[in-house]
Amino acid sequence: MVFKLIKQAPLTEQVHSKDGCIYLYRAMKFIGWRPPKSGIWRYVYLTWTLTTFIWCTTYLPLGFLGSYMTQIKLFSPGEFLTSLQVCINAYGSSVKVAITYSQLWRLVKARDLLDKLDVRCTSDEEREKIHRVVARSNHAFLIFTFVYCGYAGSTYLSSVLSGRPPWQLYNPLIDWHDGTLKLWIASTFEYMVMSGAVLQDQLSDTYPLVYTLILRTHLDILKERIRRLRTDENMTEEENYEALVNCVLDHKLILKYCALIRPVISGTIFTQFLLIGVVLGLTLINVFFFSDIWTGIASFMFVITILLQTFPFCYTCNLIMDDCAALSHAIFQSNWIDSGSRYQSTLLYFLHNVQQPIVFIAGGIFQISMSSNISVAKFAFSVITITKQMNIADKFKTD
After folding, report:
1. What single DSSP character describes residue 59?
2. Closest CA to 140 of 34, 213, 33
3. pLDDT tens across 43-56, in order?
4. What's the predicted TM-score (pTM) here?
5. From CA 70, how far away is CA 85, in angstroms rounded?
6. Which neighbouring-strand residues pair with 361?
């Protein structure tokens, strides 16, 4: 099977929660984010890391700027909007990539922490949940890969077949106006640079979803353990108390896991929240007023990638808050009434901590949720409304 990890493994195989990050970390290694720890190959690999950052993170946004400074008069309105929507997203992507790469140690440490949470997952029911989320996480990453690559590929082909480079980046070495061969060479170069940038952007967009999918599974496993407290008649009160303490310790590990990934998520999602309304607005204006069939397809793929950058993760954040509420309900409804005072005092402490839901804040300002995402996305319709009321589209066409 080509993509074996998207299929749920049988219980006869040993699977760990961190296996849900396998495709994610393979892509990180491919783009230059995971160098060997030592040896000569570490320095060779770091050369590749530097190369990808120079071309995909630095040159790409500057290439758009250089193109506007030197060739702005050659752009048609549709071409300019197609370029501008990607340009704004490219600057945001560079910021997200810088945040993710600089905080990558947090993601690695959080991934390794999952091994401690897996230690107590010994029953078939719990292991099946681990197997399921591993397949789901890798499947989600693969879907993102197909969509993001589909955008880059469709834009590349539709633009070249229309007789122009896909993004018209500033290129002082190759003049794409000088024949079909130069057009294909310049376009292929742009496609390679953009493909690297798209992969970097994908990594910054998918790690929050992958990590929170695994988080939800461990919250669900903990909830079921709480429901089973003091239901086994063969266990003594001391053993029941120890089971409760283990649940408290599991919850602390989950909170530690969240504390590790929270600063990374805060920076990347805040950057995306700032951009999503403007980028979506420009893209929809391009689709409604200036696109032909080919650029319309590419713009439609771009809209999907923009929506994927925040909506799935924001929806998952809402589910995590619901999971926390379900966790507190499970504690209160557990079999504690005839327990001892030590058990009840520990349970009360546990209930108090669990009632504080796990939330993620974007930039220390916005709570990451579906309502926040919809609020910032609404700005796209404001941009379209302003464009229609001021008749900007018709003015561009006339000019």
Report:
1. I
2. 213
3. 999 999 999 999 99
4. 0.93
5. 18
6. 367
